[in-house]
Amino acid sequence: MKALFLVGGMGTRLRPLTNKIPKPMVPIMGKPLLERSILNLKNVGIDEVVLSTCYRAQYIQRHFGDGERFGMKIHHVKEDIPLGTGGAIKNAEEYFDDTFLIFNSDILSDIDLRELIKYHREKAADVTIAVTQVDNPSMYGVIEYDENDYAISFKEKPQPHEITSNFINAGVYVFEPKVLEEIPAGRAVSVEREVFPQLLEKGYKIAVYKGCSYWIDIGTPEKYLQAHIDIMAGKCRVSGLDLSGKGIYKGQGSDIHSSVKIQGPVYIGANVKIEENASIGPNAIIGNNVHIGRGAKIVGSVIWDDVVVENGAKLVNTIVASNCRIKQGCEHYRTVYAEEDSRTMAI
Ligand code: GTP
C-alpha cells in the first residue's frame, strides 16, 4: 500500500514559525513532524509515499530527496499554484491504482493504521475518514454518521446551533482509487468542503473510524506547544525518545554545568551548552546546538536548533525558531519568536 501526504499548505496560522519552513517540517521533539509521520509508516509495512508539495516545496524536496536515506521510496508532486486538499489528491492520481492512505501533515496522533485499514475493508467503504472527538468542534469539520458508522453529513466550521456531533475529521483517510475520478482536475478543490459531500450525494460509502485515542493538529502555536507538553506528559508516544529517569532526555555532546537546575520533563538535544545557575524546565524542549547562558531560565518552552539564549534571559511558554538570539536579560512570555517576527500566543 502507498500513502499520500498533503504538505503544500501555507501554514498561515502557525506564522511566524512557517515564514521560512513549511508547516509539516516544524520539529516535534527535535525531528520534523513529517519525517516522524513517514517513518511511522514503515512500522506498518508501507515504504512508498507521495508528497504533494506547493509552499516551500524545495525545503521538503531537499530534506527527503528520493527517500533512500530513510529506507523509503518518496515521490514529490509539486503544484505551481495551490490546488487545495482535494485538488492535491487529484494531482497525484497517477501514483494510485489500489487502496491508499492520505494524511494531512499537521497531525500528531497515535492512530493504529493497521486497524484503520482493516476497518476500511470490513466496512467495504469507498472512503474511510478517521474522526476524533473534541469539546468544541466549531473550528473544525464536523461529521455526522448513522448507526452503522457511515457518514451522513459534513459541516465545516459549524455555528454553535449547527453542532450535532462532536466528532471531527482527523485528516487521515483511506481511499479507493475509483473515487479519484470524481474529483475535478486542474482547479483548486477542497476535499472536506466539496469532495466528501459530493461523494455522499452520489451514493459512495464513506465510513468513519473512531479509533484515535490521542490526536492534535499542530496548526497554531498554542497547539504546537500543547503537543510537546502532551508528549512530555506521556499522552502521546514518540518513537526513539526515552524520557525515563525523571523525564529528562539528554542528546549527545551536551555540556551542562553542574550548578544547572533541571526539573523534568525536559528534552535537551545534541551539542547543547548550558552555563552555570541556569534553570531548565519543567516542560522545556531544547533543540540541537543551542547555547544557554548563565542564570537563564526556560520553562514550558520549545527552542529550535542553533539558538543562543544570553545570560539571565527568561523564556516562559515561548517558542523560539532556529538561528535566533535572545538578548541578555530579555524576558518572553507566551511569545512565538522568529528572527524577523514575533507575536503573543493566546494561552
Ligand atoms: P493554514 O494556512 O494555517 O490554514 O494552514 P494550511 O495552509 O496548512 O491549511 P490546512 O491546515 O487546512 O491544511 C491541511 C493539510 O493540507 C496540511 O497538511 C496542508 O499542508 C495541506 N494543504 C492545504 N492546502 C493545500 C494545497 O493547496 N496543496 C497541497 N498540496 N496541500 C495543501
From TrEMBL:
GO molecular function annotations of the record: transferase activity
Q: Which SUPFAM superfamilies match?
A: Nucleotide-diphospho-sugar transferases
UniProt keyword Isomerase present: no
Could you tell me which residue ranges the EIF2B subunit epsilon/gamma LbH domain spans? 247-331
Q: Does the keyword Transferase apply?
A: yes
Q: Which InterPro entries does the UniProt record give?
A: Hexapep_transf_CS, LbH_EIF2B3/5, Mannose-1P_guanyltransferase, NTP_transferase_dom, Nucleotide-diphossugar_trans
Q: Where in the cell is it found?
A: Cytoplasm, Cytosol
Q: Provide the Nucleotidyl transferase domain boundaries.
A: 2-231
Q: Give one Pfam family.
A: NTP_transferase
Q: Which UniProt keywords apply?
A: Cytoplasm, Transferase
Q: What is this protein called?
A: Nucleotidyltransferase
- The organism encoding this protein is Caldicoprobacter faecalis
